[in-house]
Amino acid sequence: MLETIINVIGWIASVLIVGAYFLNIRGKLSAQSKWYILANLIGGLFFIVNTIYLKAYPSALVNVIWVIIAIASLLQPNKRPAEASSKR
Prior knowledge:
- By secondary structure, the chain is mostly helical.
- The protein has one domain.
- 77% of the residues lie in helices and 0% in strands.
- The chain is built from four helices and no strands.
- α1 packs antiparallel against α2 (34-53) and α2 runs antiparallel to α3.
- The protein is globular and about 40 Å long.
- The protein starts with a helix and ends with a helix.
């Protein structure tokens, strides 16, 4: 049962990160938008759980860095021009 949950978490992470990237490439979601960053943050957190469980430590480390970048981006709202321009 736990393995199934971990696998589902990994699939959700994949959909979040690849989906956000796809929407960004298609021009539907800015890389500076709160939703893009949140999708990457949540996807990264889910991947951390999945990769640690699978003992894929290099991938886990990459996702820890991915999550740190997302958190830093969310903590600097003035650095996100897409958000600023949409509030006008």
